[in-house]
Automatic annotation (TrEMBL):
The lineage of its organism: Bacteria, Bacillati, Actinomycetota, Actinomycetes, Kitasatosporales. This is DUF2993 domain-containing protein. InterPro entries: DUF2993. Pfam families: LmeA.
Amino acid sequence: MRALRIVLIIAVILGGLFVAADRIAVGFAEDEAAERLRTSEGLAQTPDVSIKGFPFLTQVAGGELDDVEVGIDGFEASNGGGKVRIDELTAKMRGVAFSDDYSSATAAEASGSARIAYDELLKAAKVEPVQVAPGVTAKVVGLSDGGNGKIKVAIEATVLGKTLPRPVEVVSSATVEGGKRVQVHADALPKLGAVAIAEQRMRQITDFQQVIDGLPAGIKLDKVEAAPDGVSVTVTGSQVKLVG
């Protein structure tokens, strides 16, 4: 009995040492991966990297991590001519394989979410007055949550030199086109005073798209839906390059 007790005590101690070593190793790897991701993507802040699964060391020995979660706040994507800020970008990576020298890492699959604030989405809208009919100009002055996943577009109109007392509100649908464009399309066109306006001209104001380019390689937009503090975006990807 005494011998068995000694064996069990040794096993517990060795097991504890292994767990401690494993957790130290995973913490170091998370910090290193976060720093490399910050450098490769040119991020202003160091992202959060969390390596799931246990034990970590046996995954490393196999050359592939089962599950890695990445969080980036304030990611700046390009929009065809400027920058658009993406907040709360989180992605769950599965099957992350890395090179022998750990200089590169690629995830087989990824899924996650992000948020684009309304003032960022507004950068793509017509915020300067545009003539939509003789003596009538219109411009977008605000975006907000329209309920049921819709975006409310506020349009300020000027008719014969007089600005309408209140913005005209249009409920619009938001969709993803081509994996990198958020398309805003009015469900129904508004009337600006008593002036009849051709649909094509009116949609020059109500409808617009925001290009979201320069996401981490392999990540693309999947779905978009209006929320109280901006549009909520679902992202997916395959063969996503994390480092290298």
